[in-house]
Amino acid sequence: MNDKNKFNDFDEVFIEKKYKDSNEVAFILGKLKNGIKIHIIKDPVSLIKETFSSDAPVDKAKKLLLTGLKGKVLKKCPGSLGHLCCNYYVVNLYLGCPINCSYCILQAYLKNPFITINVNILEIFEELDKILSKNKNKHFRIGTGELGDSLVYDPITGFSEKFIDFFSNYKNATFEFKTKTDYIENILKHDSPGNIVVGFSVNAQQVTREEEGLASSLEERLIAAQKAVKKGYHVSFHFDPIVHISDYKKEYFEVIRMIFEYVKPHDIAWVSLGTMRYTKELKKNMKYNYPETELLSDEFIECRDEKYRYFKPVRSLIYSQIIGILKKYDKSLPVYLCMESPEVWKSSMGFLPSKKNLGSIF
């Protein structure tokens, strides 16, 4: 993904008044095209409510909103009813993503025409300091890739450098950047402090080509992973969503083979696995935004959390096969399942995790 400007072609920028003179806003505006229309607003919440659409799917966002993170700074991953959670914490630095993967759940969650960047970095760090300092005996696994890609806007924000500097002071936390890009230039300016993980979502090359929009190619991501490792960082890989395509076993085994061409097992902090799943709202948006996708043509069943997944035996088989090949490279490789049922965990992983032994995976 060589063109670092293709995601920054906004039509308009809306800036919350209290942050208009901040260094972060000035830095971002300096990276955008000349002549862009700028609006100073008092209340971003009202702006979003005015443009919120509860019914019609939202097309690609072309408007940038620069505001501050509202509510809790550090939130636990919401998980999914009846499915096990990996105790991950998130900072919602970015809301919205321009990569446009056909399966992206953000189509259903974010119903406004804005890409939102929360620029109140100092306030965010103040709150994180309070939490981490008061809980020194607890280890936090934290990331920013929940409601937006962690690095897709890093070329215009430079936030990764600030997060590396901040978390280098807290040994009771591991911070992960999770991305489908190869935008790691800012990260490579710094040696790893030891508790920063650069995470890459990966998929079968057929899925990457047909369903992952403007994402970096698999090879570009793996080259970036290799560069991060050479700088001292650990990396992670997220196979999510694993798609039950024809000859999926061969396709995903090839991805794993390629991964270990670029990095060694001891360079990997963890690997997560999750199969294709969707809500009714996401299905509606996928049909509208990506009518050519074939991801919905397989057989799915509604689960307790009202998400549709492949049947349990199908998921268990997929996981068992992928875990089997991963463990051939290193039996001690940390692997976990994302938003999976206890039954599938037990049948594919061979054990049922408690909070204690799931935490020990990492």
Describe the overall structure.
The chain has 362 residues and is α/β, with parallel strands linked by helices. An 8-stranded mixed sheet has the order 4-5-8-9-10-11-12-16. Strands 2-1-3-7-6 form a 5-stranded mixed sheet, with helices on one face. A 3-stranded antiparallel sheet has the order 13-15-14. It has one domain: pyruvate-formate lyase- activating enzyme. The two termini are 30 Å apart.
Query: Uncertain spans, ≥5 residues at pLDDT below 50?
Result: none
* Estimated helix fraction: 25-40%
Shape: globular
- Radius of gyration in whole Å, from Cα? 20 Å
Largest sheet: 8 strands, mixed
Number of domains: 1
What's the topology here?
Layout (H helix, E strand, L loop, with lengths): L11 E5 L6 H9 L5 E5 L2 H8 L11 E5 L7 E2 L11 E3 L3 E2 L10 H4 L4 E5 L2 H14 L5 E4 L10 H4 L1 H9 L5 E7 L16 E7 L2 H7 L6 H13 L3 E9 L5 H15 L5 E8 L1 E2 L1 H10 L11 E2 L5 E2 L2 H18 L5 E3 L4 H8 L5 H5 L3
Parallel strand pairs: 1-2, 1-3, 3-7, 5-8, 8-9, 9-10, 10-11, 11-12, 12-16
Antiparallel strand pairs: 4-5, 6-7, 13-15, 14-15
